[in-house]
Amino acid sequence: MKIKLQSLLIVLNLLGWVLILVIILSPFNVLRIILGIPFLLFFPGYTLMAALFAKKEGMSGIERVALSFGLSIAIVPLIGLILNYTPWGIRLEPILYSVASFILVTSIIAWLRQRSLTENERYTIEFQMTMLGWGQGVQDKVLTITLVIVILGLLGTIGYFIAEPKVGETFTEFYILGQGGKAVNYPTELKVGDEARMIVGIVNHERREVSYRVEVVISSKKSYEIGPVVLVDEEKWEAKIGFVHEVAGENQKTEFFLYKDDEVVPYLGPIYLWVDVRE
Fold it and tell me: What is the pTM of this model?
């Protein structure tokens, strides 16, 4: 059984745009994984190989498949690198459309090159054991078996990480800002009894609900406590707070400590300011 290269290129492009529709209409779908793996690891390299080597001579089917995987692994990161220097950045939609466009452009080039060849010169896919080099020498058989093992291992590894995704790092953001909401214009000069105003922020990346409290310490003495502040995963909290220095002096230290749940030892901190206090 023979399949024309042009027909296969049409199928690859259709599958690519089906993947895009699947992701747009149903972001969490098994079909997204099934189509996404070959879309990234095989299609780009195969269409580029078809554009570069339109003739049947010079390269066997097994070599085309092997190089298609290798080229795809090189092409997709290169597309991502280029996107990193564009306004779109490295995000899902730009990557999808860029890879799909690359597959389409290289397919068109391959189709045009095929048109310039005679029927006997054009590369076709034959569903026979000889296509994989099985009916040829020992070297081709070893190459075939090795490639099959590598591909199965790669697919198995990808499947494992899909089924058992690694839990990312857990952490909490804790910060202080000036009244304008920027990391500038902190209160550094005060009069005794004047209230300094600023913003304290917490962002939960702990992958669970967490209860926080913030302790404000002035000149090594606890001034007051804020909280509890209960945040679910990825929730952000900001609040304007005030503090007062009752004693004059230079370089007085105002510290902020973050506690998590019922812990008695600070989870984060201190974040501190040096304040000059005048009469």
Answer: 0.49
- Tell me, what DSSP letter sits at residue 249? E
Cβ burial 46-79 (10 Å sphere, 16+ → b, else e): bbbbbbebbebeeebbbbbbbbbbebbeebbeeb
pLDDT (tens digit per residue) in 6-56 = 777 888 889 888 888 888 887 666 778 788 888 888 899 988 988 888 777
Cα–Cα distance for residue pair 167/151, rounded to 1 Å: 26
Of residues 230, 228, 229, 218, the one with CA closest to residue 256: 218
179 and 197 in contact (C-beta within 8 Å)? yes
> Which element (helix H / strand E) includes 150?
helix 138-163
pLDDT for residue 99 is more than 90: yes
**Residue ranges of domains in the chain, CATH in brackets:** 2-163 (no CATH), 171-278 (2.60.40.10)
Name every residue whose Cβ is closer than 8 Å to that of residue 41 and which is 6 or more positions away in sequence. 69, 72, 73, 76, 154
